[in-house]
Amino acid sequence: MSQIAINTSQNVNINFNIASVGERMLAFIIDLLIKVAYVVITFYVFFNFFDLGYLLNGLDQWSQMAIYIAITFPVYIYPLVLESLMEGQTPGKKVMKIRVVKIDGYQASFGDYLIRWVFRIIDTSFAGVIGLISMIVSKNNQRLGDIASGTAVISLKNSINISHTILENIQEDYIPSFPQVIALSDNDMRIIKDNYMKALRVDDRQIISKLSDKIKNILKLEIDPVKMTERQFINIVIKDYNYYTGKDN
């Protein structure tokens, strides 16, 4: 399985497995089945319970088309809305354990998902052949929407241990120190922990110091260095995040 090295804001490379073309196609099929089910159920309800057919008979062609578009509108915005709400996933991607991420190490924004959504019109042209060719020939299995938005789709099926994830073992009687950590996302915490573990292995104090300052700046915290070292601070932040989000459960 090919990998992608994502360069984080702390200039540290983290390797992720790229989602295969097959995984992405299966996720697409699952999402397609969900959309088809929505359309079938919706039309059944409108035509059988609300007698939509009778209403449409009295309208011109353009009005009929407008009603059809309104009814099926959720299908069109399905990937944009769900990827935005589910941090780079749709139900299909979640089942296949794949996710959209920025290749620069930051959390993908609504703007990135919007670009992917707009380019989906091109990627799905000719029965999806354009998007398929793009994924096959591109280095990171990227369709045109991924290339334009600077994103890639990674696999979350990595066989890794707890030290390589945002998970952290904490005691049942653990008392958190910084409730501000809830402002961070899973992606933020993964970057923090990955960078911190890499820095610890080579005793890179500069990276640890920069990482600590970055966290303090984001969370607007002032820590007395005499009472708490930078390493102690980062360790507590990781544990607090797991405590508040229940990631150890």
Characterization of the model:
- The protein is built from ten helices and four strands.
- By secondary structure, it is mainly alpha-helical.
- It has a two-stranded antiparallel ribbon with strand order 1-2. It has a two-stranded antiparallel sheet with strand order 3-4.
- A hairpin with a 5-residue loop joins strand 1 and strand 2.
- The radius of gyration is 23 Å and the shape is elongated.
Topology diagram in text:
Blueprint: E1 3-7, E2 13-17, H1 21-48, H2 52-57, H3 61-85, H4 91-96, E3 98-102, H5 110-123, H6 125-137, H7 144-149, E4 151-155, H8 186-202, H9 205-219, H10 230-245
Antiparallel strand pairs: 1-2, 3-4
Helix pairs in contact: 1-3, 3-5, 5-6, 8-9, 9-10
Strand order of the largest sheet: 1-2
| Major sheet size, sense and barrel closure | 2 strands, antiparallel
Helix fraction bin: 55-70%
Structural shape: elongated
Strand content: 5-15%
Show unreliable segments. 159-166
Our measurement of the CA-to-CA distance between the termini, rounded to an integer number of angstroms, reads 29 Å
The DSSP helix count reads 10
Order of SSEs, N→C? EEHHHHEHHHEHHH
Number of strands: 4
Average predicted local confidence, pLDDT: 85
SSE-based structural type: mainly alpha
